[in-house]
Amino acid sequence: MTARLLLRIGPVRRFTRNLLCPVDLLGRPLLLKYTRDPAEARAEIRGHARLAQHYRVPVLHSHRRVPGGYLLTYERLPSGTDRGLLLDLLNADEPTNALRTYLDQLTTAYRDVILATAQPTDPDHVVRKLYWDRAAPGGRLDTYYAGRDFLVADGLIDIPISRLGSYTLTINGRRHHLDWSATLRWLRAHFAAREPVWAALTQGDPTDVNLAEPLAWFDYDTAGMNSLAGEFANFLWYASALGGWLVPIYNPAAFADHPAAFAHVPANRPEAQRAAVDHTTGTVRIDYAPRLSAPRRAAVTAYWSRLVRPVADRLWPSAGLANLLRPYLAMRILGVYNLADLAPEDRLVLLARLAEAMSPTFDPTTYFCPLESPCPAP
User: Fold this and answer.
1) Claim to verify: residue 37 and residue 134 sit in the same structural domain
2) pTM here?
3) Judgement on whether residues 121 and 156 belong to the same structural domain of the protein
4) CATH number of the domain that 13 lies in?
5) Minimal CA–CA distance to 145: which of 192, 110, 187, 116?
6) Three-class SS of residue 131?
7) Which of 46, 75, 104 is the C-terminal boundary of a domain?
8) Which residue pairs from 149-156 have beta carbons closer than 8 angstroms and sit at least 24 positions apart in sequence?
9) Residue 40 shares a structural domain with residue 106
10) How many CB atoms lie within 10 A of CB 173?
11) Which domain holds residue 204?
12) SS3 state at 31
């Protein structure tokens, strides 16, 4: 038997700061993950152990310290070009029976575990990476925006973002207001508060690429007791904006093995149709056409009706979901990509979406499902 048959190494893929490499060793399909950050690697090992008690996850065969970081060896689940992820079920023209079955399995698994593990939790004891740490001094909000001014949309709305609060916004015919500095202060203050939050045991970053098909969960450095409002906002925003629009445009390497995602960007990318400023009246008009493919609308609708609504009815029977979701949604809009680095049209739409989320009239049942198949009414 030749060495080539004993060990076969596939292409190395980069995801943020991590490297992934499929390996076949003596016929065993493995996945090697190289993580540079020791703290992140330790969080992943702990998170995997906690998640494995409640969710289907690949076996973690080994983890060891290597030069420059950690090397983790996982069982490799079946996958290939345009198959193996929730992403691939969403990259279709219409929802399939396979997608509907998957969404039923996904929401049932989450609902059972969340309702069994949910409890009010001190913010110091929840997973803080995606929200609290990004809002803290020196976190991503500071890294992206502190001391920085930029135009609302170069060549379209040439107003510095710092002055947007002095204008009235008309977005798709509805009046809004967005004070940039006040929004950043509000987010920092919200995630500095000490009040307990409802949290439950989840993976924490439920994206199209972190959910395998058949159903399993990947990526565990945010696994643990996660804020449920943050968990919900994360899935809803990724399914309705990041996965079909922003990630394939601004981080195409994440979808290197799933090229169908790029063909479906036009069905998911909002179109900026009009941008105008009237300085004499202090008004800005923004018209944009929302875009969301039918499979993604189906995913958002199922997630809302089968998971968010039943959990909310149990844990927050008298609270408005809009106020609960708003700070987490705003953080997802501002804290994933630096808005100043995006194309002017994309930045304009995201600022419009932020203004809509910050509005007193924010309604998540229509916000995440903007086209002909709205989420069910609460």
Assistant:
1) no
2) 0.93
3) yes
4) 3.30.200.20
5) 187
6) coil
7) 75
8) 150/339, 150/340, 151/344, 152/284, 152/347, 152/348, 152/351, 153/272, 153/275, 153/344, 153/345, 153/347, 153/348, 153/351, 154/344, 155/344, 156/272, 156/275, 156/344, 156/345, 156/348
9) no
10) 7
11) 86-367
12) strand
Give the number of domains in the chain. 2
Both 48 and 131 in one domain: the answer is no
> Hey, is 197 helix, strand or coil?
strand
- Helices (H) and strands (E) counted in the chain, each on its own, are 15, 17
Walk along the chain (378 residues) and give the pLDDT tens digit of each residue.
444 567 777 777 777 678 888 888 877 888 889 988 888 899 999 999 999 999 999 999 999 988 888 899 999 998 889 999 999 999 999 999 999 999 999 999 999 999 999 999 999 999 999 999 999 999 999 999 999 999 999 999 999 999 999 999 999 999 999 999 999 999 999 999 999 999 999 999 999 999 999 999 999 999 999 999 999 999 999 999 999 999 999 999 889 999 999 999 999 999 999 999 999 999 999 999 999 999 999 999 999 999 999 999 999 998 889 999 999 999 999 999 999 999 999 999 999 999 999 999 999 999 998 654 344 343
**Structure token pair of residue 107:** 């929401």
Q: What strands, in cross-sheet order, belong to the sheet with 197-202?
A: 119-121, 197-202, 224-227
